[in-house]
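Problem statement: downstream parser choked on a complex file, so we are re-checking the raw output for the carboxymethyl coenzyme *A run. The parser issue turned out to be on our end (a line-ending mismatch), but while we're here, posting the original submission so the record is complete.
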Amino acid sequence: MNKTAKIIIEDKEYQLPIIEGSQGEKALDIKKLRDDSGYITYDIGYKNTGSTSSNITFIDGEEGILHYRGYAIEELAEKAEFLEVAYLLIYGKLPNQSEYSDWKNKLTRHSLVHEDVKKVFDAYPTGAHPMGQLMTMMSMMSSFYPNAQDPHNTQEDRDLTIVRMMAKMPNLCAMMAKKRNGHPVLYPNNSFDYIENYLYMTFGNPCEPYQIDPVVKSAMNKLLILHADHEQNCSASTVRMVGSAHTNLWATIASGIAALWGPLHGGANQEVLEMLQEIKDSGFTSKQYVEKVKNKEAGVRLMGFGHRVYKNFDPRAKIIKKACDDILNKLGVKDPLLEIAKELEEMALSDSYFVERKLYPNVDFYSGIIYRALGYPTDMFTVLFALGRLPGWIAQWKEMLEDKQPISRPRQIYTGEQPRAFVDIKNR
Ligand code: CMC
């Protein structure tokens, strides 16, 4: 029997259908509430609003659970390859052997980027933030593939756009690393796989053969998987919102990159490293820094802490913290910032300010220390997040389109002036 909830507004009763998810989450369907009662719901920042139903990712924030298509993140991070996870997110199932080799072949064959893209890179100011460059490159790609303009193209066209985007993304990200160093851009090398190629195009040079370090490759694989999707976060919701206007996929993903860049979202990984560096350079103790945070000094937050959904722990942060120790040990890196991070974490976890507000380390708290140990400059960290998140954004966009979801268009409560007459400029 369909369940309903009763809501009484100004003594009048309304029935609202109850929707239940496959993991027991419950929602009130308020679609018709305005038509029936004249009321809308009000929830700035969508703190308690379900914007869609989805089969892709499940999070239980109270229990610290994260699943992609039913598979636990812990198991995927341990056993899977990033491209398997990307396929799982986008196409809904783990690929069998022939599907997987076909997927990898396609991604290899489409990895070259049009030569004219390099000209745009050349014109970009040196030192520009890589996320700004990535956003521009991504939206520009739509001009190179005019047949991808219409998201209602055939399934075949849509799949080709997905393959092209996944295949070229490592190349675009690596180009920015080369530009910042003033080094020649490297073309992908088909003897390397997806992650190897990205490492080669980023760290290799034309003068000598590039040796893949298995520790670095495996760290990248884990980090990309951990970032691959996170249900209706700010950038995924942006992708769904922009995509709901039937904007083409390239421009839609560019909007996701813009959202991710923000320091409260993916940009936090850069901010964490800068915060740790600031503590080290300024001679502040961790305790003094935590006091600044608690006193809410302007603009000071403990970056890499807190999450809208996780109120116990972030399972990704747990995996990354452990991986951080392993990877730094294997690479023989001793990073004083890791010690500061651990001290901050310990202090925060036993402090009532953080305990009462349920603030725990999130995915960004330790990831930057690993990226740094792997040799990435700080402003590339959020680009690495985007590289991992791309399949998640594509999956969210594809599901939104295939479910024929309507254009996203929230309502508001207007709090401005009453209607008034225009006053001529001479009389103001
Ligand atoms: N440091 C200090 N205080 C904090 C922090 C923090 N990192 N995060 C939240 N608070 C406080 C906040 O001041 C507020 O206190 P009060 O009740 O006294 O006003 C309370 O905790 C609730 O915070 P909120 O800002 O209302 O919570 P939110 O759900 O709107 O924000 C957040 C979530 C992630 C934006 C926030 O925790 C934050 O700014 N964290 C730091 C940035 C960060 O690490 N972002 C990465 C998020 S995970 C990666 C991703 O998927 O994006």
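For whoever reads this later: The beta strands are 4-9, 12-20, 26-28, 57-60, 65-68, 71-72.
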